[in-house]
């Protein structure tokens, strides 16, 4: 048989048919016939992330580097011998150790001349020179309220790269990044300028209470260990305008400055702040009230350059490429470059890095004619974030971003599979008889339904993590997504066009319409978005606070969810998933059931670290909870979040009562916000708290407090000398709260002299809570029969005006807690220590926990004792 008759060989003389890499048929064929693109990268990313997490919880130090090299040599030996499985496992272990080593390097290794080496826990004056890294970010003054003891004004935030520090009479070269906060408005410099700063330097403080946001960890993840503060804009001076010193690294900052000016000129005030936040990453421009509205409606991700914004930009560019506005290969490469530049331009935040990595993977796959799988794309994104900012993987924002992306990828796969199903002849016939208008309406309805369903799926999947981290769930986010998504898409697209055209100087009189039209559309879309969010936040029941699941239960929930997805369509899947679900339910409810059926515990007092203020949580063995005071000199909302975090960490969802010792704002200003988060049985005050004379002297603060109590329907009761509050009887006995001061008439003097003094007793152990007692009120208390106690909260934040020697002799405390925001040279702690009491300062130790029962008194703190 001749070669021409041999039909087994391919007809090589046939011309090859060139198929575009965007061809759906080719992509579908390769998806089914070949191994999914990039599948091994998933294991690589998992190994690297697990290694980074292991180093965070159990630092391995130099051991990680040594072990990674040793395991790599082991993998090489196994691979040469053809041991496939052994070499694969060894390689993953090597990658995990490499991830741990990289995370350890970024978290713990800093230069020898790092600025933080000159920073102390307490603020100290400093003079230094640094270069501006990014444009100045201005924060508007928070809303004026009588509950804020110290009014706050406008502030300016400057990101600096420190160059040198003045040490006496000479300048010392230093390095490191820092953020400078200036009281007032400062806008004299641009990125790349050299500035001289006269301010206060200190280390970024760690979280002082359970469930409190740890700014020290967040800043360390950004490679910043200290902070700078200036009292006035005059303390910052530009000494070199850049010029020859300006580098390409400064260009993004200069471009952001120019785009910000365009927004200020072309958009209204409130909408300009939103545009700055959404497109430039300057969230400080958004006011506190508006930010709270976005938080309550579950739309806070709109105010940052998140994956949604990067995805919208990439989708628009790819649509232009597919429409033939640019050559496909060059267009795809251009899209990759623009998306990467935009992610870096806006600061390289983890959500933007994640979205940019997904776009890059999709573009590379399109160039080579392959179809990337969702898990592989997320794996590449995780590796990108790990390389860029390893600590970001442990931040809630990045975790929620990856979780939402994974959910949307899964949801999109299901929707695409459903859309690929062939339509029946009858359905095609019915659709052909519809008018264009009806088709448009039906298409819009399907789009809205799909968007609403996708938002619902993401919300349900993210709810456990949201409840655990933020303790806030927003059902209003579901219907609101029908407005938020399209308005965000319009705002992002038209806002970028406005900023770019305006920055290029095309806003002249002759060509002004090129900028005016997109600016008007952007302003209108932002206005609709802002009104919709504010209306959603004001709707009753739009959001609610919850204690959430514990850390273990939350992790177990997502492990169960991953198991359910992996076991989908497997014969053994439903049975195993059901058993895992029962184990999860037992994990969630078993601890509370054991605690309820077990023996009664001890009385527990938590002295919350709120700075200069007071808040003490008293938990009785019977499950009762009493909060004594709730305030500080700082922000009422921030103080409420701190106290609420402590309550949620203890599983408290209802307070039997709140006792306010007296009418100083630093003892009650957080209560209105707490009433929105918790159910409160009653509020107890002294007979003098709301007297006309006191209310007239204290002004609007007490009126706001009374209005908040009445609005939430909480009963208000007065306490006086001799009153006793009794909490449920247990095997260990009842918990009794006795009022030791004042009586019905009180004493002559300031509000502090008439502070409520409470004695809490359980199982023969006592805690004394005297508020800010001093003066004649303290003299009257000391004239009573001595009240021996185990734990004393130092009156008036440890002030020496509260007669520490006399009070210590009268009550003989074994431990004294001082709740204050700064250390005083005349601190009363020495007086108590001289009489044998241990002194615990919330300024140094954070929250202090005391457990009292028949077995004795146990005291511990959130932080260990500071080294002398």
Automatic annotation (TrEMBL):
The keyword RNA-binding is assigned to this record: no
Compartments where located: Cell membrane
Domain Metallo-beta-lactamase: 612-797
Protein name per its UniProtKB record: ComEC family competence protein
Highest taxon above the source species: Bacteria
Keywords: Cell membrane, Membrane, Transmembrane, Transmembrane helix
Pfam family, one: DUF4131
Organism whose genome encodes this protein: Pseudobythopirellula maris
Annotated TM spans: 60-78, 300-321, 328-345, 376-394, 400-418, 447-470, 476-501, 513-533, 545-568, 580-598
Matching SMART domains: Lactamase_B (SM00849)
A GO-annotated cellular component: plasma membrane
Gene3D superfamilies: Ribonuclease Z/Hydroxyacylglutathione hydrolase-like
Record-linked SUPFAM superfamilies: Metallo-hydrolase/oxidoreductase
Protein topology in the membrane: Multi-pass membrane protein
